[in-house]
Amino acid sequence: MSVPDTEYKVTTKTVLIIEDDPDMNELMSMVMEQSGFVAFSAFDWNEAYKILNERTPDLILLDFMLPDANGSDICRAIAKDGHLSAIPIIMVSTLRDLPTKVSSLLAGAVKFMSKPFSFDELVNAAEQALKKRTDNVSIWEEISNITHKNGGDNGS
Asked: How many domains does the chain have?
């Protein structure tokens, strides 16, 4: 039996983590790397923008509240950029109110996760976000999901 002369390309998924809390940034990076991702870290939008000009990650994990911009504004900026607009974004935040969640999704995030979350949930959300990119799941389906999870709670 002979071995085929086929060259196999190993695809590595990359993630850009934009999180200003150093401990949370490091934890998220470690978890994503242990799950097979190559992780790049930024602590604010300015730093993230420089990274995005050098490489295009497969996924972005974005903290809603950064020192130099809010997550919704960043999502809109990424959506307007032709080479970045297809990157799925998962928004993470300590904020739990429904308007913040909905505005994040309307700005372009494919998922909103409230902190604290388990790292299994994070990895699962990342895998689902990459799958949704190819499945083209509607933003309205995701809004419906978070609305039902909140039971109509508007955070007031």
From this structure: 1
